[in-house]
Amino acid sequence: MPAYWFFEWVSLFLSVTVSLCFFAVDKFSFSDLIVDNDIVISSNQRII
Fold first, then answer.
1. What residues form the membrane-spanning segments (predicted)?
2. Backbone angles phi, psi at 9, to 5 degrees
3. pTM, rounded to two decimals
């Protein structure tokens, strides 16, 4: 197998992995978790 094919396969695999990572971030939306944490912190300050 030529080395060129190997590099083509590796670049394809990396691009698919990056796409899946971005999809997972969009699906779980870490920004919502950060907002929830801010709400919890502010409510704790009000309780104190």
1. 6-25
2. -65, -40
3. 0.43
